[in-house]
Design a protein that fits this description.
Pfam families: GFO_IDH_MocA, GFO_IDH_MocA_C3. Helix content is about 35%, strand content about 25%. By secondary structure, it is of the alpha/beta class. The protein folds into 2 domains: about 5-135, Rossmann fold (3-Layer(aba) Sandwich), CATH 3.40.50; about 140-295 and about 340-360, Dihydrodipicolinate Reductase, domain 2 (2-Layer Sandwich). The chain is globular.
Length: about 375
């Protein structure tokens, strides 16, 4: 029987809890160390709550990386769940210590930082997973498979929308409202990177140019709380991306529609058990997760039979499970995970959006960094 992968965590909060649940779901990981706070009392109490050895509860990530790398039973992987500005420094410390990295998105606060991490990953021979969790949904795996099989024909239109309402009033931003902690993009960096990655993962075509508009609706806020863009793909398709954290009535409405010459598909993250698919001239089909006609990609990402709902946590756990398979050399050949290259592409998208917005929505080239 394969022993669980020893994992550590830097950071905490809501996303820390989500990551720990995802780690536990399939029994692939065992949390053995962590740097949950720079405050010694908070770090200690967090470690006690998680039943960790007090000697493996740290107050800074640099010490954790150094000491865990020196232990025979040290961690194999670290999970980074901190504000954005710390992603790159923490990842750098553990990569240089020879420890694999699982990092919250975005990978860094600039493309320059992301590219430096990519160079380190290749230099030290470690692996990095970026937790764009929506690509863990079986329905999204199936959508990607349908596009690659040519079921939609020549792609024509890509539409992705992500709406939330939790920033409709001032005062809720926390670190996400501080450019020194979140980076130069607000809603764009927080959920816009998710929207971009979801479309990029399913469509499989690069954006060539974009025209972006970023806006801050709430007075006094330093970063954008809404962003929109028109997209031109290299394959000839046209697209639209819209994200907002000031849309009352929306909790986490992430939707993707892709249309081609022979068919179309539609996915709603708040109803993740279903992928809607239509062939031209035929009625819309409701494709249920792991249901009749499901393919290898859908089945690989499903845990229970159709009709037994899976959702957000299972999608998160799927990335963790796939990363464990990847580290063991057992990942199916047709499964692609968001990695350090995805992180670099995402930061290139963010910087092109910012440049276009600064130029009054001028069409701006999106130059993805070579892999």
């Amino acid at each position: 029987m394969t022993a669980p992968i020893r994992i550590g965590m830097v950071g905490g909060g809501f996303m820390g809890r989500v990551h720990r649940m995802a780690q536990r779901l399939d029994g692939e990981y065992q949390l053995v160390a962590g740097a949950f706070s720079a405050d010694p009392d908070k770090a200690r109490s967090s470690g006690e709550a998680l039943h960790l050895d007090p000697d493996r509860v740290y107050t800074d990530f640099a010490t954790m990386a150094e000491r865990e790398a020196a232990r025979e039973d040290g961690i194999d992987v670290v999970s980074i769940v901190t504000p954005n500005h710390l992603h790159a420094p923490i990842a750098r410390a553990f990569i240089e210590a020879g420890i694999h990295v699982i990092c919250e998105k975005p990978l860094a606060v600039s493309l320059e930082e992301a590219l430096s991490l990519r160079a380190l990953v290749k230099k030290h021979g470690v692996q990095l997973l970026l937790t764009h969790n929506y690509s863990g949904y079986p329905a999204i795996r199936r959508a990607r498979e349908l596009v690659r099989q040519g079921a939609l024909g020549e792609l024509r239109l890509v539409q992705v929308d992500y709406a939330q309402d939790w920033l409709s009033e001032a005062g809720n931003e926390g670190w996400r409202g501080d450019p020194t902690l979140a980076g130069p993009a607000g809603a764009l960096g927080d959920i816009g990177t998710h929207a971009w990655q979801l479309a990029d993962y399913v469509v499989g075509q690069d954006i060539e140019t974009l025209s972006a508009d970023l806006h801050t609706f709430v007075p006094g806020r330093q970063l954008d709380d809404a962003a929109q863009a028109m997209l031109r793909y290299r394959g000839g398709a046209r697209g639209r991306l819209s994200v907002s954290q000031v849309s009352p009535g929306n909790n986490n409405r992430l939707q993707l529609a892709v249309y081609g010459s022979r068919g179309g598909l539609y996915f709603d993250q708040e109803s993740p058990e279903t992928l809607w698919f239509a062939e031209l001239g035929e009625p819309m089909q409701r494709l249920s997760r792991n249901g009749p006609g499901s393919g290898p990609a859908d089945q690989h990402a499903s845990r229970v039979p159709a009709g037994h709902p899976e959702g957000y946590l299972e999608a998160f756990a799927q990335l963790y499970r796939d990363f464990a398979c990847h580290l063991r050399g057992e990942l199916p050949a047709d499964v692609t995970l968001p990695d350090v290259d995805t992180g670099c592409r995402g930061l290139a998208f963010v910087e092109a959006m910012l440049a276009s917005a600064r130029a009054d929505s001028a069409w701006t080239a999106l130059a993805y960094p070579e892999e």
